[in-house]
Fold each of these.
Amino acid sequence: MRLLNLSLDEIEQLVISLDEPKYRAKQLYSGLQAGKEIEEINISKELKQKLALNGHTVGGVTIHQKLISKIDGTIKYLYQLEDGNIIEGVLMHYKHGSTLCVSTQVGCRMHCAFCASTIGGLVRHLESGEILGQVIAANRDNYKENSRGVTNIVLMGSGEPLDNYDNVLKFLKLVSCENGLNISMRNISLSTCGLVDKIYQLAKEKLGITLSLSLHAPTDEKRKEIMPVSKAYNLKETIDAMHYYVKNTGRRVVFEYALIDQFNDTKECAVKLKQLVKGMQCHINLIPLNSVDESGLKGSKTDRVNAFKKMLEDQGLSVTIRREMGADISGACGQLRRSYLKKEDADWNTSV
Ligand code: SAH
């Protein structure tokens, strides 16, 4: 068993099943949530031995590499999983706290044309404890007496969270548990490329998290060119699901829109975008596209990004441009892992 997958109740059941007193469960759980290895945790030697004998491991992540941006202090992590797989995350510091971007899968099978995470496809889903482990590792790495560590989480790293629904849901429950990290659902955002059935399922959970949809194009024709998921779910179905999310949860939703030069940054697109989200309690987050070598797509220049923003604002929409954080350390989704894997390939090739 990987222990970080377990809630406090489940740890209690495990401890009892190992013929140990129940109070040890809290000690074990607190140690795990603080990012300790089993050896470091303040529990009896016997319990440590029993855990080892039964093959129980922490099941989190270790920091494999860490890059700190000279521009804004953003930290980019490469984490290693117990099976050796590598995933990535980003910690961004703001005035109100620190936001950690977490991965939900090793790789991704959604194949968006502009995204580095999907090159090479899906390797495997992450377990709930491996997603939680990213928060715990970043916390342990950053926690100082005068800092609260990670205060906000965005599920916007590698992977499609709703393609790994059960593990992601369990993660949300684990990370918000008051005996554990106690990060409020209100401080968590989940981003999806638009798995419509799962959006309905999530809406019914009424969790209080913010839902973001990666929209990126305002017509089916254009969206199909860059996002294969739109062949399974058209825009009308997708927008209907977002309306349902707002209605059922009372939460405003966010649309992410990565601006690709001359493709989706035109006046016509701005008008279509407004028609699409008309009447919905929503916010638009414009992202200047980070170019990924393999895709051949180019991001819009700053003046076109600003002009597009103004066109949306003039139609009464609430819009921000996402600040580029850590641009000097491979900012966007999947790019750091990608450059890491490429380097591995190169090393391997030269040694043949
Ligand atoms: N699979 C989820 C979450 C992961 S990606 C989703 O699709 O929403 C987080 C955000 O980064 C998404 O909006 C994604 O479309 C965007 N993104 C991916 N590659 C990008 C790139 N090269 N430049 C800008 N944004 C990118």
Amino acid sequence: MLPKKHPRKKSLEIRHKLVKGLKEGLVTQAGLIAHGRGEAFDYLLGEMTKPDAKKAEEAAVALMLLAEKPVISVNGNAAALCAKDLVKLALLTDSSLEVNLFYRSKEREGKIAKELKKAGATRVYGAAGKPKRLQGISSARRMIDRPLWESDAVLVPLEDGDRTEALVAAGKKVIAIDLNPLSRTARKATITIVDNITRAIANMNLIAKKLSKLEKNRLKTIADSFNNKTNLKSAERLIRKGL
Ligand code: ATP
Ligand code: MG
């Protein structure tokens, strides 16, 4: 048990979730290291959702609500950290959930799908279905299932740069959650949320409840008025200030 007043309490709790995920076979060892990169940026951002991240979260939800066939792509870290909130967001935005892994194995895919079902998902897609090949990437993540193939907007938390680029090239609007505003993912995505996935998805659920009451024109204004380049520059400035 962590002491209540421990200054790194939340951050340590997140680590514990990932270690548990590793033991259960949801997370890979490399996934733990990837989390470390994100954590360092989070530290510099004060481990809180900054106003710019909130703006990106609003634009992202507006985009998902406007999309014809939105998809949420889930990897091991995402499932270990916030399966319940991801399932909730899928319900609120009428999105399909798809498991897509960098270090792919049928077993891990199955475990992640099971975790999402335990969190309330009724259907989980993944490369175990009838995957098609996404052009332009060489990693295992090139295989994508029908909903993602057909989707017009996709939320890719903790994504790899290659796949972000390939998804954009395939004509999809890509929403990334990445604490590193300098990554290829952050730069290539249509909307980048520079926030911890645990806070971002929880915020997006609250936002979705509010925005789902709005007319399409209003949603379009929110999505269109967002500028990813400006927003990333601002996140970079905040990180410098944190230093
Ligand atoms: P890219 O491939 O986009 O250039 P990268 O190779 O530097 O990025 P990856 O290992 O592909 O990084 O992916 C890990 C990314 O996920 C890192 O950029 C890190 O900032 C981000 N990340 C890790 N954990 C979290 C988290 N909990 N919330 C938000 N972002 C995170
Ligand atoms: Mg990468």
